Amino acid sequence: MAALRIQNLKKAFGGLPAINGVSLEVTPGERRLIIGPNGAGKTTLFNLVTGDLRSDSGEVLLFEEKITRLPTHRRVHRGLARTYQIITLFAQDTLEHNIALSLLGLSRLRWNAFGRFSNRLYEDSREILRLVGLEHLAGRSLSEVSYGEKRRVEIAMALAQKPKVLLLDEPLAGLSREERSSVKALIASIPRDMTVVMIEHDMDTALDMAERITVLHYGSVIVEGTRAEVVADPKTREVYLGH
Questions:
Q1: How far is CA 28 from CA 129, 163, 165, 195, in A?
Q2: Does pLDDT of 135 surpass 90?
Q3: What is the mean pLDDT of residues 120-131?
């Protein structure tokens, strides 16, 4: 059984193909990396998987259940969560409040009689922040923390949904070397009962983050395999080095 199966997925904008017949299969617990230069179609592919975009044709299956026609929120309830290339957080709220918002749709303890989040929701939020090493900043405004810490909060928000499949869209983008090391360690610590699919455009930065790698170029899969196989393939060198 595949955790995530994509079959001949296609999407065009203005008659030009952005995703051109992409097929791939990710096994349960796998760490899959999708790389490719800017404009390869990586984020568009994620948007099709999550339902942020509707495909022109093809299928998306989550643990062999077709989810291609489901709206985004129903895919989340089936066990799919993601982060975004551009951070989408509530800057004036505290870290724990951001996490509580992620938990809200999954919790029966939504609001108390005074229209406030329940204490249990905040307790759960702080526990999730502890998992990403940010519990000590729980009450701090998001605008007061570093960019790397914001990235970790976004991953925490996705983890709060307890997904079966987690999609990470360029989780290392814009990070310093020290922040990048911290976020990579966080990703490596995610339990193996969760399947992780990551997007990255910097091949050198990301190759050690996954067991299998898919190279996307102009909306098509051109190489797929282990790190050694992908690095050795002449098509990879052509895409990244121009020869």
A1: 25, 12, 8, 6
A2: yes
A3: 89
| Among the listed residues 53, 46, 12, 44, the one whose alpha carbon sits nearest the alpha carbon of residue 26 | 46
Among 206, 180, 171, smallest CA distance to 81 is for 171
Closest CA to 100 of 71, 64, 139, 60: 139
Token representation of residue 42? 């990586």
The answer to whether the CB of 182 falls within 8 A of the CB of 202 is: no
- Triad 35, 66, 187: Cα angle to 5°: 35
Cα distance between residue 35 and residue 43, in whole Å:
10
**Dihedral through CA 67, CA 69, CA 74, CA 76, nearest 10?**
50
What's the pTM? 0.89
Q: Is 233 exposed, middle or buried (0-12, 13-18, 19+ CB in 10 A)?
A: middle
**What does the angle CA 85 – CA 86 – CA 88 come to, to the nearest 5 degrees?**
120
Under 8 Å between Cβ of 71 and 64:
no
